[in-house]
Structures are given as C-alpha cells and as structure tokens.
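Sorry, explain these tokens?

___
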Amino acid sequence: MDSSWDSLNIDAELKKIIKNEFKFETMTPVQAASIPLFITNKDLIVEAVTGSGKTLAFVVPILQILLRKSQTETIKKHDIGAVVISPTRELATQIYNVFKIFIDHSEEFDFKLMLLIGGSNTDKDIRNYGNNGANIIVSTPGRLLDILEKSAIFSSKIRQCLEVFVLDEADQLLNLGFEKTLNDIIEYLPKLRRTSLFSATQTKELNQLIRVGLRNPMKVEIKEKNLKKLKPNQLQMPNRLMNKYMIFESAEDKLPFLIDFIRQHPMEKFLVFISSCAQVNYFERILNRHLSGNNKILLLKLHRKLKNKRQKIYDQFRETSHSLLLCTDVVSRGVDIPQVDWVIHFDLPLTIENYVHRCGRSAHQINTYGNSLLFCLSHEIPFIDHCKTRGIDIQQYDDQNELKSDLQQLKESLFKWIRSESKRNINFYQMSTEAFVSFIRTYSTKHIMAKWLFKDCDVIDIANGYGLLTMPKMPELRQAKKCSTQFKGSDEDAKIVGKFKQILYDKKIKNNGLGPMSKTETNAKKRLGFKRNPQIAETIRKVHRNKTMKGRTKKIIFDELDVEELNSDARMVKKLKKSKITNKEFDDYFGLLSK
C-alpha cells in the first residue's frame, strides 16, 4: 500500500498543509486504509489504537468532500455539511482545533467552523449560529441534541445539507450512556449521508452502533506490527509503553508512595487517574500540601463537575512539562497530551478497555516512550490476571527498594496531618468522607469486576487510607467481608464528628429557611401538629415489631431513616419556596393542623 500523501486523490492544498503544518511526510496505516474509502462514498467502521492518526483520517475526507461540493454549488454560511460527535469536551475541542489549522492556513477552505460543548449557554450558541453560520459542527452529544430540539433553523439545515456524520470514540459514546441521545440525533439527519464510526477498541457494544444508519459499512481494522497475531478478544497497547503494576499490602501505603514516587522523578509529567470527582478534590488538597520544595510541581485537577473551567485547566496541563494532573476518566480517551512520562492508575479503571485508553495517554505520539503504573491491593490481583488474558503485557514494578528509605516516616507524618486537619477543618472532614463514600459506591457498583473484587475488599483498611475519623453509615459496607483490620478513629474523633454533624445539620436547616431548632423548638413543632412522613413511620413500626433484629442494627436503620426524612423535608421546603407546591400541599405533607 502506497502511504505517501501524494498518492491520495485529494486537493493539493490539503496535502500542503498536512506536510507543512502537521509535518507528516507519510500516512499512518489507518489513514492510508480509510481515507481513500471515505472520499468515495463508503460508510466505515474504523478500529485503531490510540495515537494512530484517526483524527486526520476523518478530518481530511470531510474537507475534501465539502471542497468538492463547493466547486459545483454554492455552500451558504448556514449550510451544515458535516457533523462530528465526540464523547467529551476535551476531545471535541481537540478535533475542532485540527479543523481550524486547515481553515486558518488556506483561503480555499472558506468553511465556517463551530464548536458545541457544555459550559456555555445554549441560547448563545443558537444566536452565534444565526449570526455567523456553520458548515462543520464539532459537538458533544447532549449539546447537539439540545440545539436540534430548540432551533428549527439549525435542525432544518442539517436535514437539508448534511453530507458527513462521524462518531469519534464510538464505543465510549455508548459506555457513557449516550445511546438514546444518539438515536434521537439520528432522527434529525437525512438518510442519504456518509456515516463513519472511529474507535480505539472493539467491543460488543460497538456492533450496536451499526444500527445508526450505516449502509453496508466497510470495516477497517489496524493493528500494530508486533500485535498482528492477537486473538479476537485481545487488546492492543502502544508498543513503546512500559506497562507496570505495584501491589500494596495496605490502602494506607498508596498515597505516601505516590508522593514519594513523584519526588523521586523530578521534572517529569504525570497523569494520575482516580475514580470520582470527590476523590480528585480531596487528594488535590493533600498533594498540594505535601508536594512542595525547590522544584515544586504544577498540580492541577480535572473532572466533569468543573464545567467551564475544564478547557483552561486542560490547556495549562498540555503546555507545561513538569506537572501533575489529578483526573477522572474524562481525559482517558482520544485527547492528545504532549509527552506524558507517567500514567498512574491510583484506582483501578472501571473496565479493561478504560485501562487501555488511560495507558494510551502516554507513548502514543510518534517516536515517544512512556510508562504506565497500576496501583493494586492484594485482593485486586485478579484484575491484573484479567489484563494478561486480554493480551496486555504488564510486569510487576521492581524499583521499590530506592523508595523505601523514608517511606514509613512519610506515611506516619502524612496521616497524622490528615487526621489533624480533619479535626480542625470541617470542610476537609467533609471532603474526606465524600471521597471515601464516592469511591465505595463506584467500586461496589460500576466496576466491571465489582462482584468479584468488592466482596473481598477490606473497607476498614480503605477508610484508614482516607484518614477517616469515623466510618460513614452506608448500605454498601454491609456487603464487604468482615476483616480483622482495626479502624484508627478514636472516641475523641467520634465526639468531634458528632459536633461537626450538628453544625452541618443546623446549617442545612438554616439554608432551607427553617433556622436551627433547639429541643424546645422541636417539642413545639410536635405540639403544632407536625407528623412523621407516613412511609417512614410505617417502616419504623415494622422495625420495632421485628423482634429478631438486634439493637445496634435498629439504631443504624433509625439513623438512616432520620437522614432520609430530613432530606425529604428539605426538598419540600425548597419546592414551596420555588412555588412548585401549594401551601396546602406543604401543610398536608408535614401534617400541620389548620386553625
């Protein structure tokens, strides 16, 4: 196969920009295999590893198709000829910037380009389209559907003019729950269009996407040279990636090891993946305190709840060499981050495919090398075994001796500070609890191996690893096995937490317009005719009647019911303030006696 750009039947300006601006002398295998098919009206399903050049494999054909159309008919500024959908804002922005390089460097490509992602006002996007138009749309699924539903002009132009529809990271679009959104979007599209799906992994779910309207699609599957003999269920990794794992005896060892590891690798760039947004916020506070010195690393955090701040943080990380990004899987796929030296999996990924994509943030660019390090507790070794059965070459990290000299001392001082800060700072206490709760809920329900791993999980050890003062009351904790690990919180800690809870309770009542209630006020509430929520009251009666249930178990249930009822009461107060319910409905709910 001829891999030279000159062999392609595309416009000379395209070739010129590819060589001058992107510095690509030849096509990658995925580009050589898919571009000739794409520009000749074929629908494609393309599977290729991260860093293989998939973005140019659809950007170049889109521009060529629209350029060819513009030579025979006038493309008006509101005529939407191409739509590219990406699962995340970061990846959508990256694709948009690739298109922008072509459009900015040649007057021949007089196409209007528009980026539609969350974090901005939908009505503003609609006004921008009305004023400026757009011929190529790069969008996340939710924002595109929102505008299709709200703007008749926008949806009409797509139905009339659309030539090309591309789904990038197609399997993740399904994994993130976008199947219904995609089906709704497709209802707005013309039937006569080119549709292509691009992905780094082949999954069962990917086959479902063929139903989006591909007409006899051709499959393009590109594997790296040293992986051509892989079995069908095996996965590909970048061949310049050193893939390691480390087993920890205790969850308390992970955080001090991470701090020490970063200190031992000065002037390198780290991408640290954690399961949830609450964990990212918590660990960022801790690392900010303990990663200081003459060569202080730039520490950043990124997760979906940061909303319109995400792009600025992402750009900042891309542009710096000595930095660390604490993040969720929001940046695990497709994004091009220069020279990531270490991808560290502080928590296990939710799936094996997620693991592959995380690793692909390092060593995916031409002539670059990288490292991946998976943190693993002893009960999580089956995940490593599962990786090996899927063709992933992963070896145990063996450079541990150099890191053990001061590690125990660091561990003791670290957790002494964490517990001290939790006792002193109610916000930090909340962050620690929320981080632990979010991790347990993710680990016990969303992980592909949850039913195997969580049942062997030592939740007390994990709680100690978060420096908790008391154990939160969670139904998920009752599913974990009983272990002999001693929880490190004390009676004094429990008293402090009790005071914190009262402060938070009073604050919540005050914020809902009720004001903090004393015992006298509580008794007055009863005299005025307040009654308990009927459903909760019935549950309490059943628990009281259950003679086999032990006292401690009853207390836990009653505490949970009290919290549930408090939250329900708060919701009703908010509804009344927003006029979503009438005064009578409010009085009926609380059982207020009319005068």
Summary: The two ends are 89 Å apart (CA to CA). Residues 225-230, 516-530 have pLDDT under 50 and may be disordered.
